[in-house]
Every structure is written in C-alpha cells, then in structure tokens.
Amino acid sequence: MRSMLPVALLLTAAAAPALAERIGHVDTRFKWLGPDDKIVIEAFDDPGVPGVTCYLSRAKTGGLSGAVGLAEDTSDASIACRQVGPIQLAEDIKNGQRDGERVFRKRTSLVFKAMKVVRFYDARRNTLVYLVYSERVIEGSPKNSISAVPVMPWPAP
Predict the structure, then answer these.
(1) Residue 18's beta-bridge partner residues?
(2) Do the Cβ atoms of 6 and 13 come closer than 8 Å?
(3) Which structural domain, as residue segments, surrounds residue 132?
(4) What total number of domains does the chain contain?
(5) pLDDT tens digits, 48-96
(6) Would residue 100 count as lying in a domain?
(7) According to DSSP H, which parts of 16-137 are helical?
(8) Is residue 123 part of a domain?
C-alpha cells in the first residue's frame, strides 16, 4: 500500500487543472489609487492533452480592492486554443468519458466566483473543443467563449 502512494500523488498532480503563464496585459481604465483595470492575457497547456496550448484574455479589476484581492472581476473572457505539438488522445477522451473535464480554473473573486475552462471531444470531426465560462455560487453568467482544435498529424522534426 505504501509503495502505491507516490503513484497516486503523481496521478493526482497530473489530473490537476493547469497553471497559467502570464503573456501580457493592456490597461483599460485608469485608477487613482491602486493598479488600473486591465485585460490580462495568459497561456496554459492542457494537462490531459499534450500538444495543445490555450490562450485566455480576461478582465482584471484594479483599484485598491483589486490590489488586495477583494475585487470581483467581470465575467468577460475569450479563449483561443492551438495545436503546438503532436497530440496523442487517451482512449477515455476519444470515448467521451472525459467530456466536460475541467482543464483550467482561476478565482475571479475572493470566495464566490471562478473562471473555468472545460474540454470536450467531437469524435465525428476529430476535434477538441474548449469552453471558457464564469461560475458563481449563487448565479453564474451566460458569457462564454469557445475554441476548437482539430487533431492533425504533426510533422516530424
């Protein structure tokens, strides 16, 4: 039993949602105190499908409340995912058993709101579809964006 613990921890870490890398930002509204409101661009690799990277743009609230993490960001977000290397789909993804799997999550308020990215597989078109949306404990938002990545052969180096 003890020898299986490292394997279980490794599998849990591999299934965890991805961490984002900040690519850049633009300011959208000047704030006298604290950071400006901005649009942040981040990238993350799909932890379950090597060879796919997604780029997110999302609103980030500034000001004093934004500086200390108390502000609630708006539900505005956009996503663009691309094949950046060879893709080998796991059988459970091909079979639709992992449709709706969360591949990214970012807290957008202190407690109650989060932006999430989930993945679906369209077997008929051999395409991965990524959906970004905002979820709130009491009331979510219908604002969303999708991106589709056709699974294509990757040229050998």
Answers:
(1) 104
(2) no
(3) 20-150
(4) 1
(5) 999 999 999 888 776 655 555 656 666 688 999 999 999 999 999 998 8
(6) yes
(7) 63-67, 91-94
(8) yes
